[in-house]
Amino acid sequence: TQTSRCNDGALIHHVTNPTVTSKLSKSYEALIMGYHTDESLHEIRCEGVDIGSKYGGKTQPAKSLVIIDHPRPKATLVSITICEGKNRQIRRMFHAIGSGVMRLHRTHIGTLSLGDLQEGQWRMLTPEEVSNHLQWNL
Prior knowledge:
The protein is of the alpha+beta class.
């Protein structure tokens, strides 16, 4: 059977480049500084934020931004999905609203879930996963 490899430059470009027309979504769980509410996250969710011209200017609004929990009085755990993927975009978006990211974990690329993979682990993708979840034809 055919497998995809990490050294497939065109696929990597398709998945990671923010200018690619497919705009694969990337989903993360982020632990951010401060006690946030839907109101304090409104700008990221509904308008997009300016992360500086050096880093691409104004972002698109997050595709999804959900408060999961407040694990500590001055911390908020969120789930966020974006479609651009500019360099350090999540960190820069929260910085733009006066917060910071203490922990960031990618959970999905497109509809492909990281599942039980731990940090530093990897696995081969099946051709079906590459085609169906990453919108890429082998």
